[in-house]
Amino acid sequence: MLLCEDENDLGARAARTVARQMQQLLASKEEIRMIFAAGESQGHFLDALSRELNIDWTRVVCFNMDDFWDPRMPEEFTCGYQTRKQLYDRVVPRAFHLVQFNASDPYQEAKHFESVLRSAGKIDILCQGIGTSGHLALNEPHHTDFNDPSWVRVVDIAEQSKHQLIEDPNFKDLGYIPEKGITMTIPALLQAENVYTMVPLAIKRDILTKLFQTQEPTAGLPASILRMVDGMLFIDRNSCPPESLPAELLADLTN
Fold this sequence. Notes:
Oligomer: single chain
Number of strands: 10
Structural class: alpha/beta
Largest sheet: 7 strands, parallel
């Protein structure tokens, strides 16, 4: 776990860490595969990663972990549009795969996206956040199976997530949050070899407090599965003031 000063510091530090991991992998592999998230909490990280040097993006295949599903929604309010503008259009990876937010049949789109994901091979790096509901991607509380046999599902977006997203500057001008989304499941996400979780901003303080107080993984708090994962968590002084951390976690902080 790494404590950063604010969202700008967090984005820069996370980008440097991920960039170094990418460089190490590309030194020994012809191609690497990565999963990315969208939203306010990922913006500074994506911007910073797009500025990192000495990465051969022509050997990187990218996937978005989720998106809303709503055929009436303008593209500029989708998760795919955000990651494309903040990262993919800037670095020009070998390929990037987005959920088709306006597919006529969301269940067919989920099956198609799962097929593309499975056929791509092992994911090398996952870059994600945690929602105020405790979701990972759009795997919501009490509607998440840590052993889900599917890798992509159509889901209902929880009310807490809608409240968060309607205030997100990337989505708020839409005026509503769609009822459904298409998301990678927990097993799909956590098959990644390297897991990086970026959680800045004061709006995440309550859910991080709850997460640190949860000792065992529970479907009521999907992010609690990260306790079982050898990954790196980036927080900042707004999302998790040091005085709010349990003593054992505070002692483990690196700077």
